[in-house]
Write a structure and sequence with these properties.
mainly alpha; 8 helices
Length: about 150
């Protein structure tokens, strides 16, 4: 613990010293290093106008989005075009294709997960079966510094 305290104090002292050095130069107008000599290429770049850079593409983010929705390219997004992505998502959920979404169709992933976990097909999950429904977490990536930090203490 004392190492962290000593490190913190040392860091604060370094910051304060740097601040005093920079502040002292600003007030005295002195510089600790000589100004670099100007090269011919630097003066030429400073006097010549900037080269013409290519302008940004006219298709802005909003324009590209508009173009994705405007399927018939008539310059207008109709209600049907606007709702098309939602229709595709609905069609994926509507398993029986009747145009109606039942609760089981809406919760299909959860229903499937329950059915997979219910090994004995009793319609209820015991403790072990329920444990199988827990979301899978990605393992945390170990820090390469973690071993070094803990081994010094």
């Amino acid at each position: 613990m004392w190492r962290y305290l000593a490190g913190g104090v040392a860091a604060l002292l370094l910051i304060a010293g740097g601040w005093l050095m920079i502040g002292g130069q600003a007030h005295s107008g002195a510089s600790t290093s000589a100004a670099p000599s100007a090269r011919p290429s630097d003066t030429a770049a400073a006097t010549s106008p900037a080269p013409d850079l290519p302008e940004a593409d006219n298709a802005t983010r909003a324009r590209r989005r508009f173009e994705r929705f405007d399927r018939d390219r008539d310059g207008k997004v109709t209600r049907d075009e606007f709702l098309e992505p939602r229709r595709k998502a609905f069609a994926k959920l509507d398993r029986d294709g009747d145009g109606k979404l039942s609760f089981d169709e809406w919760a299909a992933r959860t229903v499937d997960r329950f059915a997979t976990a219910d090994r004995d097909r009793s319609g209820a999950l015991d403790e072990k079966e329920f444990a199988a429904t827990a979301p899978k977490h990605k393992p945390r990536r170990a820090s390469p510094c973690a071993d070094a930090v803990h081994s010094d203490d």
